[in-house]
Design goal:
NADP(+) binds at residues 11-16, 73-76. By secondary structure, the chain is α/β, with parallel strands linked by helices. Helices cover 55% and strands 13% of the residues. It has two domains: 8-168, NAD(P)-binding Rossmann-like Domain (Rossmann fold, 3-Layer(aba) Sandwich); 178-249, Orthogonal Bundle (ProC C-terminal domain-like fold), CATH 1.10.3730.
């Protein structure tokens, strides 16, 4: 794995910043002396300093001045405030990577400058255990080297795909919100096992390995999930009886509609930020 010989600064020290820093350091992709972070909370700064042996700051501008790559890891609600603070301090030498959900590249460039290199990323919750998937979308000024650098950084917390920004709302609805759907399914299956008479811990163990094994079957065989489903389903057997209930309850359509609803919400939020830009 390549090493990164640049200074990386994190604006915001939330869970995702913590996951990325932890991934970079555990895989020895970068040295702790080359990572900086900011956060208004003294407790959070102290935690990052102790856990990662990195230098932390209460102000964002100090991080920008020391960094080549700026990772915007703040909540969408405070992004505008942060960008106002950073305006004039970020230059064309910086690469900006935003992992804030729903914030278009257009919104960031409106505040910081139209000539900057900006990349938007949509990671997901499994990044916290280095099993995430991140969709990477370049702005107009980001070149191949910038994309490769972003990929190296995000690969520290899982896998990456490259997509045009227009697809990121769909990504948000699927892989961004998807872990919550999977957790609900897992929870429901565990409860189903309990309802059928199993102890909760045994039911949990059976469900987790069943889900993990099923994912491995799809990944390793390369077969369509529908084909694998048919392999498990015998005529007149127990599995078809269960599938009949799921189809009658429209589980398939509920999941499809959940992804669509989340994607539409992401689109709405993105348009809200775009409208803010037009009123400036």
């Amino acid at each position: 794995m390549k090493t990164i010989n640049k200074n990386i600064g994190f604006i915001g020290s939330g869970n995702m910043a913590q996951a990325i820093i932890g991934g970079l350091l555990s895989q020895k992709i970068i040295k702790s002396k080359n990572i900086f972070s900011s956060d208004p909370s003294p407790q959070r700064r102290n935690q990052f300093s102790k856990e990662f042996s990195i230098k932390t700051f209460s102000g964002n501008v100090e991080v920008v001045k020391k960094s080549d790559v700026i990772i915007l890891a703040v909540k969408p609600q405070i992004m505008e405030k942060v960008l106002k603070e950073l305006k004039g301090n970020i230059t064309s030498r910086h690469l900006i990577i935003s992992i804030a959900a729903g914030i278009p590249i257009e919104f960031i460039s409106k505040w910081l400058g139209d000539d900057l290199k900006i990349i938007r990323v949509m990671p997901n919750a499994p990044a916290l255990v280095k099993e995430g998937i991140s969709a990477i979308s370049p702005g107009k000024n980001a070149g191949p080297e910038d994309l490769e650098l972003a990929k190296e950084i995000l690969n520290a917390i899982g896998k990456t795909v490259f997509l045009e920004e227009s697809y990121l709302n769909a990504v948000t609805g699927l892989s961004g919100s998807g872990p919550a759907y999977i957790f609900l399914i897992i929870e429901s299956l565990i409860e189903g096992g309990v309802a059928a008479g199993l102890p909760w811990e045994i039911s949990k163990e059976l469900v987790l390995q069943t889900v993990a094994g099923s994912v491995s079957m799809v990944t390793l065989t390369g077969k369509h999930p529908g084909e694998l489903k048919d392999m498990v389903t015998s005529p007149g057997g127990t599995t078809i009886a269960g599938l009949k209930v799921l189809e009658n309850k429209k589980l398939r359509y509920a999941l499809i509609e959940a992804v669509e609803a989340a994607a539409k919400k992401a689109t709405y939020l993105g348009k809200t930020y775009s409208k803010k830009n037009k009123t400036k």
